[in-house]
């Protein structure tokens, strides 16, 4: 059994870097940050016990520079690297280079990353292990188009062309009939080649109005594997998750047990170690199909942590140091309900275009059963270079109703001035009657266009704005007869400078 690490480098930024550091520090392990030029004053660099510059501005010049990161890890004496999610987290070469350098990679083995990084290979592996997969076709890229057309007819329309190396919804094309097939194949292959340097694509039956339900899995080097129950991630925009929750209202105990078994089978089929996620699509008849394995800690892992009262990062660290995982299937008993909202600097009224600027006010809510994993503080700059996610709001309740009420309460009190955010949009989704009914599927946002209509200003926001204006007026010596008057005269609504409300 390995010695516990004394120092760990976090090869990431933003909320996930901060979140990993918090656990490291609680375990009395020194946390080492690396940062790009624009992140010189970023929160993750100041939370760390040591911080080293990577140089560079873009991700490719900084957080994707595995060579630089390994050099820093060696120089500062870090015994392990936590990759967070995104960036190098599912890069099998980087995981292998860490291993070769004698530095523990806090994540799955390079072999498991490789086996799951290729969606075609992953589906074949899962099928062999007896896990149901979405029907489809895959074959050599020089297969004659007539033959592919025949295969497509067998699969049936509508179908999806997907990239073998895909991720983040890239290289995916919906094909409604055979006339669209060839163009879609070419477009998807081009997009995949550009995004992943790998233009291989395959066909998959398009499941109508599915739910996206995934299972957290965990394994160690002592032959243990377990699932940590499900997360429903059906609220998506352009194949990207926005709101996640656990448990899913769609799973009966029987279906949950079946899917959980399939997830553990999947983990065992590839000898999976550390934290991972097995994604499934579930149709309206309760059929479930394997989609892919995400070989990393997921963005939405906190909802699982809240209902199981486990720290998944701690478990990852223990396992990477050679210890057995700190739970077993029998000891895992979820309690209550948890919902996560991704708070992003983007403008829902303008096609969710990223919003950049300086955070003039940043006050996340505080209250019972509320967790905010944040990557920024007041004064932070939100730039174009990285993901626009500022923070994640996670709320726990004894049941779903309580979690929904708590989430709405917290969203109303989440103050962000300086950039436009999706907070009001999230409020509208969570408050929607269909959401309350649990009537969720991956087309939820498209099917409810009313979510895009901006309602009249909410009283909470008016109050926040009023407080800001009266303070501002006081600071600048302007006479004001109370907040309401301030709003009427020179309210933020008439201001056209760089800040906006929520
Ligand atoms: P990526 O790795 O690019 O995120 P995934 O395979 O995980 O792609 O799929 C992302 C999302 O795309 C799913 O959550 C789902 O909404 C949709 N999707 C993927 N495959 C299918 C399918 N066969 N039928 C219907 N929707 C799908």
3D architecture notes:
There is one protein chain. By secondary structure, this protein is an alpha+beta fold. The chain has five domains: about 100 residues, Rossmann fold (3-Layer(aba) Sandwich), CATH 3.40.50; about 150 residues, 2-Layer Sandwich (D-amino Acid Aminotransferase, Chain A, domain 1); about 70 residues, ATP-grasp fold, A domain (Dna Ligase, domain 1, 2-Layer Sandwich); about 100 residues, D-amino Acid Aminotransferase, Chain A, domain 1, CATH 3.30.470; about 35 residues, no CATH class. It contains 17 helices and 23 strands. Strands 14-13-10-11-12-15-22-20 form an eight-stranded antiparallel beta sheet, sandwiched between helices. Strands 3-2-1-4-5 form a five-stranded parallel beta sheet. β10 and β11 form a beta hairpin. It is globular and about 65 Å long. It starts with 6 loop residues before the first strand and ends in a 12-residue tail after the last helix. The C terminus is likely disordered. Bound molecules: adenosine-5'-diphosphate. Adenosine-5'-diphosphate binds next to β9, β13 and β14.
Outline:
The radius of gyration is 23 Å and the shape is globular. The chain is α+β, with helices and mostly antiparallel strands and 502 residues long. The longest helix has 17 residues, at 253-269.
């Amino acid at each position: 059994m390995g010695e516990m690490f004394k120092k760990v480098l976090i090869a990431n930024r933003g909320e996930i870097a901060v979140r990993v550091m918090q656990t490291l520090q609680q375990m009395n392990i020194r946390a080492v940050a690396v940062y790009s030029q624009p992140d010189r004053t970023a929160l993750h660099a100041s939370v760390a016990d040591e911080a080293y510059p990577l140089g560079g501005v873009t991700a490719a010049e900084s957080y994707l520079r595995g060579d630089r990161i390994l050099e820093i890890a060696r120089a500062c004496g870090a015994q392990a690297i936590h990759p967070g999610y995104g960036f190098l987290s599912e890069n099998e070469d980087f995981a292998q280079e860490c291993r070769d350098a004698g530095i523990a990679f806090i994540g799955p083995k390079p072999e498991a990353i490789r086996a799951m990084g290729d969606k075609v290979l992953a589906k074949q592996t899962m099928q062999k292990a007896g896990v149901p997969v979405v029907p489809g076709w895959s074959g050599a890229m020089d297969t004659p188009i007539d033959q592919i057309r025949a295969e497509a007819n067998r699969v049936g329309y509508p179908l999806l062309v997907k990239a073998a190396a895909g991720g983040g919804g890239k290289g995916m094309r919906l094909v409604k009939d055979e006339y669209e097939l060839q163009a879609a194949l070419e477009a998807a292959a081009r997009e995949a080649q550009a995004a992943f340097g790998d233009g291989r694509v395959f066909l998959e039956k398009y499941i109508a109005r599915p739910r996206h339900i995934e299972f957290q899995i965990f394994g160690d080097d002592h032959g243990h594997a377990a699932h940590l129950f499900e997360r429903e991630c059906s609220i998506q925009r352009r194949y990207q998750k926005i709101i996640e929750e656990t448990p899913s209202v769609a799973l009966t105990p029987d279906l949950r047990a079946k899917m959980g078994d399939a997830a553990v089978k999947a983990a065992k089929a590839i000898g999976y170690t550390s934290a991972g996620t097995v994604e499934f699509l579930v149709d309206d008849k309760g059929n479930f199909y394997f989609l892919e394995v995400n070989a990393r800690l997921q963005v939405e892992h906190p909802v699982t942590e809240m209902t199981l009262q486990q720290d998944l990062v701690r478990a990852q660290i223990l396992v990477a140091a050679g210890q057995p995982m700190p739970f077993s299937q029998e000891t895992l008993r979820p309690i209550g309900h948890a919902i996560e909202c991704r708070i992003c600097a983007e403008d829902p009224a303008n096609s969710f275009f990223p919003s950049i600027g300086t955070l003039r006010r940043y006050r996340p809510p505080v209250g019972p059963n509320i967790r905010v994993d944040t990557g920024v503080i007041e004064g932070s700059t939100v730039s174009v270079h990285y993901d626009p996610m500022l923070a994640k709001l996670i709320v726990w309740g004894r049941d779903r109703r309580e979690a929904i009420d708590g989430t709405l309460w917290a969203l109303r009190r989440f103050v962000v001035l300086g950039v436009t955010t999706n907070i009001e949009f999230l409020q509208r989704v969570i408050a929607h009657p269909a959401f309350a009914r649990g009537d969720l599927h991956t087309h939820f946002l498209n099917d409810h266009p009313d979510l895009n209509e901006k309602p009249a200003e909410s009283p909470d926001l008016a109050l926040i704005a009023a407080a800001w204006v009266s303070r501002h007026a006081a600071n600048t010596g302007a006479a004001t007869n109370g907040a309401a008057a301030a709003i009427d005269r020179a309210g933020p609504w008439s201001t056209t400078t760089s800040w906006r409300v929520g």
